[in-house]
Design a protein that fits this description.
Blueprint: H1 2-17, E1 24-27, H2 52-60, E2 66-70, E3 73-75, H3 77-84, E4 87-91, E5 95-97, H4 111-119, H5 121-130, E6 133-135, H6 136-142, E7 147-149, H7 153-163
Parallel strand pairs: 1-2, 2-4, 3-5, 4-7
Antiparallel strand pairs: 5-6
Helix pairs in contact: 1-2, 2-3, 4-5
Family: In the C-terminal section; belongs to the 3-hydroxyacyl-CoA dehydrogenase family. Belongs to the enoyl-CoA hydratase/isomerase family.
Keywords: Isomerase, Lyase, Multifunctional enzyme
InterPro entries: ClpP/crotonase-like_dom_sf, Enoyl-CoA_hyd/isom_CS, Enoyl-CoA_hydra/iso
Length: 164
């Protein structure tokens, strides 16, 4: 939603400007990272807000390490946010993908560029063109995530952030 995008933009900028902040962790709520954009918002008039692509670029360009703590699902724009993070931790039951192609839409926040850089062109093309979801274990094998945990992903992400 526009409110989530705006809040993330404000908080990433605030963290970058605050010398006491050493790293940033992005997580979802209620056991889900993000199921992506609400398709109903595509038909609403554009507001003066940051776009998802600009937000992902802002996260990627942060001078502080940014860690995604993925639980549940990281789909569509949610996965693209995670791709902009410097590190990604996933719960063993998490699922990731770019399912918008099944609706006739291409990933719009540069996921089509970031995903191949992480996992290689053949695997990325398969995910991008089919909309298939992958498990956290498969994501680890492909290099999409840095770590898979069975515990609390937020605590694991904080530990990783403290290391880096």
């Amino acid at each position: 939603s526009t409110a989530v995008l705006q809040a993330l933009e404000d908080l990433v900028k605030k963290a970058d400007a605050d010398p006491s902040v050493k790293a940033v962790m992005i997580c979802g709520d209620n056991g889900k990272f993000s199921a992506g954009a609400d398709i109903r918002g595509f038909s609403s008039p554009s507001r003066q807000s940051i776009s998802l692509g600009a937000l992902v670029s802002l996260i990627e360009s942060s001078q502080k390490p940014v860690v995604a703590a993925m639980e549940g699902v990281a789909l569509g724009g949610g996965l693209e946010v995670a791709l902009g993070c410097h590190y990604r931790i996933a719960h063993v039951k998490a699922r990731m993908g770019l399912p918008e192609v099944t609706l006739g839409l291409l990933p719009g926040a540069e996921g089509t560029q970031r995903l191949p850089r992480l996992i290689g062109v053949p695997a990325a093309l398969d995910m991008i063109t089919t909309g298939k979801h992958i498990s956290a274990t498969e994501a680890l094998k492909l290099g999409l995530v840095d770590e898979v945990v069975e515990e609390n992903t937020v605590e694991a992400a904080i530990r990783l952030a403290n290391k880096v």
